[in-house]
């Protein structure tokens, strides 16, 4: 749930699929940048291990640790929307769903989305989430600026256009380089998609796959086990499709 974090302080934490669990010594939930800075600094000085966690949804339990963990669930504000540049600046504790709701009010949307929207923006960006769409880059490619609280250097601000090499290292950092505490994301205009669902055989998919992913903005396959049938779902820009 929004702002409620994932448990902790001697309580066990289990990931969404129930495949990984941990019992952190302590789960920190800073409410301000200053609190986060003091925490990361102290842990670094005292050699204490600290793992950032989002909503602990990852099926591989990548965020879980029996040492200390830090959740930004209390740092979840949408800080600014620049309608002209179509960019949003957000604190990583915000859920993807709530961010999309705020963007929709301003006629904007994230360019790429996963099949769920319960992730925290921090977890969503740091693992490079993606939906379908062969020509749509994964979400970390839409980040233009990040503020990262690092153990050694304190608060670091990196911009893709100013320091592309450092940015590339941090943009999909799996929480290994520090705690992302702010991100500015390039959005696109909100648009409607038209969905078509049909079935093909596995053979037909093999023959048509290259064409399908070229022709459609989004293509999704659901193979029905023990059958030869594959449910194909395509999505295309409604306004463009209407003009064909
Ligand atoms: C049912 C289901 C469907 C899914 N569908 C898709 C899909 O369609 N496409 C897709 O790409 N993924 C999908 N996922 C995976 C999901 O997008 C990722 O696991 C995502 O990381 C979960 O976000 P989270 O907030 O729970 O992050 P967590 O699992 O808590 O953390 C993920 C990683 O991010 C790091 N992290 C989190 N917050 C921060 C921060 N503030 N600073 C630095 N590092 C941080 C953690 O250390 C960890 O390495 C799905 C997951 C589920 C359970």
Automatic annotation (TrEMBL):
SUPFAM superfamilies with a match to the protein in the record: FAD-binding/transporter-associated domain-like
GO molecular-function terms, A-Z: FAD binding; oxidoreductase activity, acting on the CH-OH group of donors, oxygen as acceptor
Any one Pfam family match given in the protein's UniProt record, by short name: FAD_binding_4
InterPro entries: FAD-bd_PCMH, FAD-bd_PCMH-like_sf, FAD-bd_PCMH_sub1, FAD-bd_PCMH_sub2, FAD_lactone_oxidase-like, Oxid_FAD_bind_N
Matches recorded under PROSITE patterns: FAD_PCMH (PS51387)
Domain of life from the UniProt record: Eukaryota
Cofactors: FAD
Residue intervals of the FAD-binding PCMH-type domain: 20-190
Record's protein name: FAD-binding PCMH-type domain-containing protein
Species annotation: Chloropicon primus
